[in-house]
Amino acid sequence: xxxxxxxxxxxxxxxxxxxxxxxxxxxxxxxxxxxxxxxxxxxxxxxxxxxxxxxxxxxxxxxxxxxxxxxxxxxxxxxxxxxxxxxxxxxxxxxxxxxxxxxxxxxxxxxxxxxxxxxxxxxxxxxxxxxxxxxxxxxxxxxxxxxxxxxxxxxxxxxxxxxxxxxxxxxxxxxxxxxxxxxxxxxxxxxxxxxxxxxxxxxxxxxxxxxxxxxxxxxxxxxxxxxxxxxxxxxxxxxxxxxxxxxxxxxxxxxxxxxxxxxxxxxxxxxxxxxxxxxxxxxxxxxxxxxxxxxxxxxxxxxxxxxxxxxxxxxxxxxxxxxxxxxxxxxxxxxxxxxxxxxxxxxxxxxxxxxxxxxxxxxxxxxxx
Length: 369
Ligand SMILES: *Cc1c(COP(=O)(O)O)cnc(C)c1O
Prior knowledge:
globular; binds pyridoxal-5'-phosphate; Aspartate Aminotransferase, domain 2; four-stranded antiparallel sheet; Aspartate Aminotransferase, domain 1; alpha/beta; about 375 residues; seven-stranded mixed sheet
């Protein structure tokens, strides 16, 4: 655009922050396929009754007004669902924004977040975006937490935030309650347990927050509507924690960040718990079937408490297998470049016919059958 004195010689645009220069954005390829098993969404859309209630509710929203800034109804409904107080609940646009708020509030220059890889890559990514240093430890060969390593990393780095992911994406297993308690005992700051797949797991760190024990105040549980709730398109996540943590997140969230339609979507979803639980049961049963089938193929696999399975072809390069699945119109996640996951692919558990398509394509790729 012309400034005073007209368009001058072209001047370079500013460079982005130097600490972001080497960073790559977060990518998960969205190619057009018939069987999409790469991002751990629910294979089913929301219940028809929810769609109807949402449509009716939208018609009644006063869209010329700002939404309820403190999301009173939604926080009340979530608090009831989890047996906590509304001031222990903070909501945001997907659990990724919850994580970003935690890092904005507690991280930043001169502060450190700890994590244990392989784990959800967004923890590291969002830490970098908020100029928070990352202290990364390694999980064991079987992907369980190595508590000696946890002690070393936390002792050396003094992190303000320690991230766990349970069940862990992309390796699948939930950390045991004793392991999480041990991490909380060692952590100098908050322990953030990302439970994006919590509904598939046999236990939850919500028990720690609710329990009021010595670790209750420092434990933060993050959850999302994106997976079990069939609402990835809505972008809604939340945390359950001590009221001080909620207030800290409110400090850094933009005013009115949670639009009225989203608040309505969440409140209505919580009236359909039975449907959500039926979906979890279906996916859990299918997970067992897919895991058993993988057991008969030349792949290494790991037990999963989530809606996906990690596997490593033993005789073929992962990238070739990934491409052959894609050629069969089956999209899985190529994790082979992630820290500690050489040769690994991750498949989301889908509907029975989608899982059949995946297993047939994988069998053909690995055995030529
Ligand atoms: C999918 C996923 C999320 C979800 O993020 P949203 O922003 O809520 O969609 C969060 N954490 C983990 C570990 C995930 O796998």
